[in-house]
Design brief:
By secondary structure, the protein is α/β, with parallel strands linked by helices. It folds into two domains: about 5-145 and about 190-255, Vaccinia Virus protein VP39 (Rossmann fold); about 150-190, no CATH class. The chain is built from eleven helices and seven strands. Strand 2 (about 60-65), helix 4 and strand 3 form a beta-alpha-beta unit. The longest helix is centred in the N-terminal third of the chain and has 19 residues, at about 10-30. The radius of gyration is 18 Å and the shape is globular. It binds S-adenosylmethionine (SAM). S-adenosylmethionine binds next to loops.
Amino acid sequence: MLQDKDNFDVEQSFKAGLYQAELFWRRMGSRPDFTDKDVLEIGSGLGALSVSIAQQGARRVLGLDVWAPRVATAVDLVASHYPDLRSVAFAATPSTEFAGEALFDIVVSQNTFEHVSDVAAVLASIRRLLRPGGKAYIGFSPLYHSPFGDHSELRAPIKLPWLHLIAGRKRVIAAFNRANDMNVETLVACGYNGCTPRQFDQAFATCGLDIKSRRVNPTEGGLKNLAMMTFRALARLPGLEPYFTVGLYFVLQKPEASTDVG
Ligand SMILES: C[S@@+](CC[C@H](N)C(=O)[O-])C[C@H]1O[C@@H](n2cnc3c(N)ncnc32)[C@H](O)[C@@H]1O
């Protein structure tokens, strides 16, 4: 299998990830105090967010990702760049299969929920793994129906907003198969759940965690901010929500006295 290092500059992406981690908290609206906390990251990728949280004084940070080669790259990056940072570890285990309950004070997840195949199952695992009163910070973009929600998977010669929706899922899947020499049949198998904002909202509202905040399209920078404000307004018009909701940022909390759901 082709490794990350053959596809892109891993070192540079990791550095960009450290910067992205700062933006993540700005978009979220607040950054928790990680001092002495046990933290779980879901979809840790190259590990930059986990590293930055460990550097902020967390007692333990565990980054989980379902893609084993990427987990191996994260382990190598931390070993070579942060040999003294012992509080961070990574594992290629889905959170749904990670045993135990009430193990973490904080769960974070960045730009992963548009990829997970079963949103409700991952949310249930977060609820199980959080301690009562613990919080989950889950932010992700771009959603599939937003202007570039296919993450360029269509590989069209020109980049046009919503082109992947006009082209249709079959063409997106075919382009994915050509590029990766694969033969999958569904969007989920390409790594995108294709959920609409309404489907995400439904899953978040029924997962047994309290929704403390929900932000739509938070971003930074003058022009980008203006564009996203306009998108937010358009997303409120009937029928347009999926097309103008680019990012969703949730803060959730596990109730202190937890009742069982499902
Ligand atoms: C776009 S990358 C984001 C990585 C990192 N969070 C970042 O922001 O750079 C999405 C990651 O989610 C992982 N992923 C997809 N489904 C997952 C799941 N159910 N549990 C954990 N990781 C998952 C993928 O393997 C991939 O590494």
